Amino acid sequence: MRRPISLALQAAAPPRALDARLEDLAVPLRSLDEPAVRAAFALDASDALLKTTLSLCPTCLSHVPAAVLQRGRQVWLHKRCPAHGPSAAVIENDIAFYRVSSKDRWGRIYGGAQRFDIPAFGGACCGPGESCGPVSPSADDAVGTDAPAHDFSDQQPNKTCTVLVEVTDACNLACRVCYSDSKGDRVLPLEVFKTHVAALVARKQRLDSVQLTGGEASLHPQFWELLEWLCAQPAVGKVYLPTNGLLFNRPGFAQRLKPLRERVLVLLQFDGRDTGANPVLRKAKPERQRETLIRTLDKLGIAMQLTMTLSHGVSEDDIAWVVQQGLRHRNVRLIAMQPAFFSGRYELGGEATQRLTLSDCVKGVVAGMGGKARTEDFMPIPCSHPNCGWVTLFARRFGIVRNIARNVDLDAVMNDVAYKTLLDKEQMRGIVGTKGSLGSRIAARVGRWLIRPKDVFGIAIKPFMDRFSYDQDRVSACCHHILDTHGNAVSFCEYNARLRHADSWSRFPVLP
């Protein structure tokens, strides 16, 4: 048995700023050639080394050196903690869906994986047809509206494509899978909410979208005041409402959303059928109530996203059914698939070496769409990091469903679409018809004049990270943020993997 060589690296420790401490770990890691990395992490001869990075020890949550490698078709993350030794996790089940990035900076790229280059973010955070000034050079994302309780990766250089603002830690379900482990009884006061959002806008100038979330946000006694104030903010593009939908079926509730329908997108928890995933994941059978709510919102013209959480051995058979439910309703604009990750509450067992990944979701969609989608139709979202999210797009009109992502040359239009989560009609038309044979490009360019933004139906896959799959390269490029209870914008994956447990709600009032 080979004995791994010693790495002259230590787990990061306070009191210096986190990014400076991470740099101390990264400098010697970047200096290692491939034989040294193989010896340090005891890699097999058949393992293909892809890159090195920084990760977390799953036991103590210290930052540690890590190596990303291909083993068979799978991509693995191997790491070593000075105190707790080696550990490993699967991060992708099919190498064809893994990318290294031009943004990877905490280690070194060794080759073997496809590379995805994203231009540097220049600070342009405006929506379609708008413009905004640069962020104030004195702005500091590490300072919220009161004293921070923890340190975290600097997110100020990154765009905030979406930010979650949790307004309660209470929920009316007790799901077996809940990244926030929502089981509290506290609420964020309205004035604190306003102060936190206003401070973030002052630092970022504009926010593409803000998610009003929890727990279950609709439990908040001032839910409508929170929502209406947020919708009135000119610097906020869209307002997202993640919900399990149980309270939305109350008489008159959905109807109150109608005046806000140009600003609001309802993100409805929609994991599958009552005979499938629902009772396993949610300990409930909400299929009928959710179908009723979808029909109600559809008639009111309120746009929706169906959010499907998927767990290994539970959800695979429900993927096709969820996609078909989304296609049936014109105001379901997006299906978001989120492979379950081991943060917060996860009561289904399972191992970090056996999980659903991005490629499993893609293959499930393709298998369930009767030839309307191919694996090649999915592409990385050109924003934070290519392993943070993939998407494909369809046009639905005149009873026809046609994939349009296959007619987009992402490399050719990268500078036009990078960091843009909201495309207007002209931008959408501009990217369609840039790829394919001459005949298909001509057909796509003719057809794009018939496409309206409301005709576009997307399927997005968001593989969030946990303490096992944590890659600091992704965290440092993050655009999916969450406000902690002090108002700091933190990477969503970092917050849930290493910070949430220490961010107490105890100073906030109890839910009436």
TrEMBL record:
Keywords: Iron, Iron-sulfur, Metal-binding, S-adenosyl-L-methionine. The keyword Ribonucleoprotein does not apply. PROSITE patterns: RADICAL_SAM. Pfam families: Radical_SAM, Zn_ribbon_HMPTM. InterPro entries: Aldolase_TIM, Methyltransferase_Class_D, rSAM, rSAM_sf, Zn_ribbon_HMPTM. Its cofactor is [4Fe-4S] cluster. The keyword Cell wall biogenesis/degradation does not apply. GO terms for molecular function: catalytic activity; iron-sulfur cluster binding; metal ion binding. Residues 157-372 form the Radical SAM core domain. This is MoaA/NifB/PqqE family protein. It comes from Lysobacter dokdonensis DS-58.
